[in-house]
Amino acid sequence: AQSVTQLGSHVSVSEGALVLLRCNYSSSVPPYLFWYVQYPNQGLQLLLKYTSAATLVKGINGFEAEFKKSETSFHLTKPSAHMSDAAEYFCAVSDPATGNQFYFGTGTSLTVIP
Amino acid sequence: EAGVVQSPRYKIIEKKQPVAFWCNPISGHNTLYWYRQNLGQGPELLIRYENEEAVDDSQLPKDRFSAERLKGVDSTLKIQPAELGDSAVYLCASSLGGVPGEQYFGPGTRLTVT
Questions:
Q1: How far apart are CA A85 and CA A77, in angstroms?
Q2: How do residues B29-76 score in pLDDT, each as one tens digit?
Q3: What are A32-72's pLDDT values in tens digits?
Q4: CB contact under 8 A, B43 and A44
Q5: Are the C-beta atoms of A32 and A47 separated by less than 8 Å?
Q6: Using CA atoms, how far apart are residues B13 and B34, in angstroms rounded to an integer?
Q7: Phi and psi for B37 in degrees, rounded to 5?
Q8: CA distance B101 to chain A (A)
């Protein structure tokens, strides 16, 4: 079965600093990978997705993620954090071999310090 | 374009009472999902519909949970009777299908069982 591990349930960065949120997956075949963001009292919003095309994926709000098969990772980065980036971030995996069943990680709460 | 609509946004009930949640997906989206999100956790799939057919309900606690999607559009998720452990946010999402992971989420219904 697929699983997703997000290292660090809470991450704090200073405004303007690099954001790095970690995600590792377990899969015997290359899955589809996603990052979603959830603001307080709102549903999840897709930031970006990897579906076996370019390994470096650019998303909305200046975020990007790189698929590294050798490391089974899909870490999310942003060069310069804004206050508005404070939210909960979820990594998710979808396995084409199992009918695209979808699994979310436990989430990382990002705090941006002024 | 209207997003996924859910109602109610908040619900407080006593244990053993029934409760129902309603979801209206984005127009034209044939795939509909119900997720449960416990505090500090990622969403967990309860049931997935392709049009009016439930194609994945393996995680739905069928002794107390039921769902329907009449005419392949709106959907209702019901719990009867509710237990204390059912307190969570219930998220509805929809997608066009055929594009893994591009799910659009509603704001969720926060259920508190006392």
A1: 12
A2: 999 999 999 988 899 999 999 999 998 888 899 999 999 998 889 999
A3: 899 999 998 888 999 999 987 788 999 999 999 999 988 99
A4: yes
A5: no
A6: 20
A7: -120, 110
A8: 7
